């Protein structure tokens, strides 16, 4: 069975970032000069509320991560607190704006928010991950004082299986618009057909007339090349709108010899759509455009632009380590680039819609995306409180508003994100079918089922038969707003779900950790399209994808270490990432690179092996500091035919062939100091790659490396790698020195991230210990120009200093 989804999708234009979020009007960020109090006040929405002593904060803002970790709090959410808080901001809306519509738009508030303007409740939105908007116009005082107030109720502190953060943790906008304007997320473009010679596109435009008058308008569509200057196509269509109504219009766009959006060349056109009245533009939106096709086939797998390929994906959560859930765009860009470098080509947004920045970056970098809506449906899942999968669980969650809000939440996710070429599937759920958490089925009593079942069938639990009807409803909602992509879900209990209508409601079935079901389910359900939606890091799990044409890909858990889902104290989070909290590639990231990368690659790490164990680790750090003569296991991760080991230029480990069973080549050698290098060769013994580690001396100096020495003054971010080196400049992997950061000039320290999962110390100050000899510092401009001097100091070490120009 083959399903072809031909897609021309519109994404945000990098040069007009704010416009693409809402597809209409003139958005202005309102991130600065908010007032905040972590307390529930009955008068928090009132105009006369005295907020003069509240804390001054800027958005995005996550209050949870700024508090100390505590073993008395839930491990599920990273041992960090939540609570109820208020935000307030004064809005100066000019009298000249009278007659225009005024909206407020939030990219995300976690969670259960209430928004007020001048004491008037605008609405409530319980979902903490969705973007939403309110009309301020009826309550605004044009030319007078306006107070925007937001109550955030995260009193259910253990309402998630991972760290969520708390507060207005994404950007917020004020939007001015003509009373007749494009509807929110109302510009959507997709393809009727596409090949190398021609693409035929359909453009659906929704327009909202909030005025009391009927009118005739024109929609001008202009498609430009990536440079934004070369006009490719232009057309105009008329639309008639009744008073207080919505109207829809469809157009066709042709592109001769189109440049397709792909993984190696993610080409983005620019689409400018204008709403005209009497020849004058009353609303304009510009968005980036990617043209590409996808094919899903039950036997052949997945093709992008008719090229069959394996999807090499990772799952990610939305936090940024020390930054919590308020993660700047620059941080995500560095992380995604590092993932792509190791061979990753896809991201699963687990298990909720993420910040718009992440999708835009995937568009720009050429990364495929699964966008996911829900982690639980009508009933709660277990939330671990004293460590991962131990103790007595809690049952807080977001299930209580699923019935009322799920249709709206899913529709809003799809309408917001459907313009992104990177997105290839919509996921309606993650592991909602986990056996006995909460659904159950008689099949769980049958012998021989390889499922994580506790106690077999539990007739008192909700019946798994309910899953099919819910899935059908959600699929119908999704297809109402986008028919260009398939609908998927991540199945945790596929044996149980196979007894229901749940998998059959999906276009594509994701299997979590059940690789042993691939062959038998492919035989039993020959029209089912199968992939690994969540997988372990093992070589065997990858070979189940690599060697089976019908399994089109896998998504490793996880791409990046994340807060929450923590083990027993001390544990900040889940530590199985290819990248660590700071976005540095971990040893298992190099192991994965040897499996996924198409370019020759090599890596070595080591660990003590006094008992001559056969254990082969994918987590061997690049350390070469031991006692003289100590027996050391050296492991290499290569993707070439063979590899040899050399110490100080002399071969000390015989050349060995690549081991397709483990993916690891190993040598046991006695330690001697110096430079240890692995050299990777092809079948003809031609060297293709090499990687070296060196014995270091004592910690001597602090070395700083910044990603940019020049920043825009408007809250741009510098990411500074802080490295401890010895007297010869060799990194000291064993260093755990405590460093102090000092900043002089117009910038502030957002956080220090050493990526040590067991370091539960204070993350709110300027003092922190390095881990494996390094850390990452996040420094942000504060709206002023000037020079910033950043220094790191520690007793007995040479200081590290760097200057950044703020323009």
Shape label = globular
- Assign the structural class, choosing from mainly alpha, mainly beta, alpha/beta, alpha+beta, or little secondary structure: mainly beta
Spatial strand order of the main sheet: 21-22-23-24-25-26-27-28
Q: Which regions are unreliable across 5 or more consecutive residues at pLDDT < 50?
A: 6-18
Helix content: 10-25%
Radius of gyration: 27 Å
Describe what you observe in this structure.
With 807 residues, the protein is mostly beta strands. It has 9 helices and 46 strands. An 8-stranded parallel β-barrel has the order 21-22-23-24-25-26-27-28, surrounded by 4 helices. Strands 1, 14, 15, 17, 18, 19 and 20 form a 7-stranded antiparallel β-sheet that branches. A hairpin with a 3-residue loop joins strand 12 (180-194) and strand 13 (198-209). The longest helix has 16 residues, at 402-417. The radius of gyration is 27 Å and the shape is globular. The termini are far apart.
List keywords for this structure.
mainly beta; eight-stranded parallel barrel; seven-stranded antiparallel β-sheet; 9 helices; 46 strands; 39% strand
């Amino acid at each position: 069975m083959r399903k072809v989804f031909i897609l021309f999708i519109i994404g945000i234009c990098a040069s007009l970032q704010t416009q693409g979020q809402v597809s209409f009007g003139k958005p202005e960020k309102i991130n600065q000069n908010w007032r905040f109090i972590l307390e529930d006040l009955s008068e928090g929405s009132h105009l006369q509320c005295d907020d003069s002593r509240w804390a001054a904060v800027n958005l995005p803002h996550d209050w949870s991560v700024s508090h100390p970790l505590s073993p008395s709090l839930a491990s599920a959410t990273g041992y960090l607190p939540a609570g109820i808080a208020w935000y307030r901001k004064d809005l100066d809306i000019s009298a000249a704006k009278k007659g225009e519509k005024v909206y407020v738009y939030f990219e995300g508030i976690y969670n259960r928010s209430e928004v007020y303007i001048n004491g008037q409740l605008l609405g409530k939105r319980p979902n903490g991950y969705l973007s939403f908007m309110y009309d301020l116009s009826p309550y605004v005082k044009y030319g007078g004082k306006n107070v925007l107030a937001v109550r955030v109720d995260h009193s259910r502190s253990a309402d998630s299986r991972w760290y969520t953060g708390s507060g207005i943790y994404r950007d917020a906008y004020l939007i001015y618009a003509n009373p007749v304007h494009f509807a929110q997320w109302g510009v959507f473009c997709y393809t009727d057909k596409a090949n190398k010679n021609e693409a035929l596109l359909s453009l659906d435009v929704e327009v909202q007339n909030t005025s009391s008058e009927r009118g005739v308008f024109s929609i001008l569509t202009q498609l430009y090349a990536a440079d934004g200057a070369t006009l490719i196509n232009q057309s105009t269509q008329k639309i008639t709108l009744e008073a207080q109504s919505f109207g829809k219009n469809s157009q066709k766009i042709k592109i001769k010899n189109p440049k397709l959006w792909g993984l190696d060349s993610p080409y983005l056109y620019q689409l400018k759509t204008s709403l005209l009245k009497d020849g004058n533009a009353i609303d304009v939106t510009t968005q980036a455009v990617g043209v590409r096709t996808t094919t899903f086939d039950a036997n052949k797998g997945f093709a992008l632009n008719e090229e069959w390929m394996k999807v090499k994906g990772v799952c990610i959560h939305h936090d940024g380590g020390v930054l919590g859930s308020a993660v700047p765009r620059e941080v995500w860009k560095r992380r995604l680039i590092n993932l792509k470098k190791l061979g990753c080509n896809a991201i699963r947004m687990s298990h909720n819609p993420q910040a718009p920045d992440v999708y835009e970056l995937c568009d720009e970098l050429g990364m495929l995306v699964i966008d996911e809506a829900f982690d639980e449906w009508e009933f709660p899942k277990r939330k671990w409180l004293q460590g991962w999968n131990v103790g007595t669980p809690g049952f807080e969650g977001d299930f209580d508003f699923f019935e009322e809000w799920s249709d709206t939440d899913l529709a809003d996710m799809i309408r917001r994100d459907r313009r992104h070429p990177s997105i290839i599937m919509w996921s309606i759920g993650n592991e909602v079918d986990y056996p006995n958490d909460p659904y159950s089925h008689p099949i769980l009593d049958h012998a021989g089922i390889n499922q994580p079942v506790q106690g077999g069938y539990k007739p008192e639990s909700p019946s798994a038969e309910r899953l099919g009807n819910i899935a059908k409803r959600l699929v119908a909602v999704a297809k109402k707003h986008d028919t260009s992509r398939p609908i998927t879900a991540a199945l945790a209990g596929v044996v149980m779900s196979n007894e229901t209508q749940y998998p059959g409601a999906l276009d594509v079935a994701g299997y979590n950790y059940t690789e042993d079901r691939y062959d038998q389910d492919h035989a039993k359900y020959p029209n089912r399209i199968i992939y690994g939606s969540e997988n372990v890091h093992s070589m065997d799990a990858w070979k189940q994808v690599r060697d089976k044409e019908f399994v089109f890909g896998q998504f490793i858990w996880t791409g990046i270490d994340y807060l929450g889902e923590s083990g027993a104290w001390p544990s900040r989070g889940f530590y199985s990432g290819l990248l660590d909290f700071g976005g540095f590639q971990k040893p298992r990231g190099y192991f994965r690179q040897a499996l996924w990368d198409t370019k020759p690659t090599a890596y070595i790490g080591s660990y003590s092996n006094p008992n001559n164990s056969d254990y082969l680790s994918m987590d061997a750090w690049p350390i070469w500091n031991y006692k003289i003569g100590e027996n050391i296991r050296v492991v290499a991760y290569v993707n070439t035919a063979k590899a040899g080991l050399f110490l100080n230029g002399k071969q000390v480990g015989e050349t060995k062939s690549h081991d397709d069973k483990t993916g690891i080549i190993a040598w046991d050698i006695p330690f001697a100091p110096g430079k240890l290098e692995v050299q990777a060769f092809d079948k003809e013994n031609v060297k293709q790659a090499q990687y070296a580690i060196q014995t270091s001396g004592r910690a001597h100096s602090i070395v700083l490396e910044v990603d940019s020495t020049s920043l825009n003054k408007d809250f741009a971010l510098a990411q500074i790698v802080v490295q401890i080196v010895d007297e010869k400049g060799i990194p000291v992997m064993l260093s755990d020195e405590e460093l102090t950061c000092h900043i002089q000039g117009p910038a502030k320290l957002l956080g220090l991230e050493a990526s040590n999962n067991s370091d539960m110390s204070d993350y709110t100050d300027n003092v922190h210990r390095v881990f494996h000899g390094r850390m990452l510092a996040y420094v942000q401009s504060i709206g002023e120009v000037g020079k910033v001097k950043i220094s790191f100091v520690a007793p007995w070490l040479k200081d590290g200093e760097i200057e950044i120009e703020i323009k």
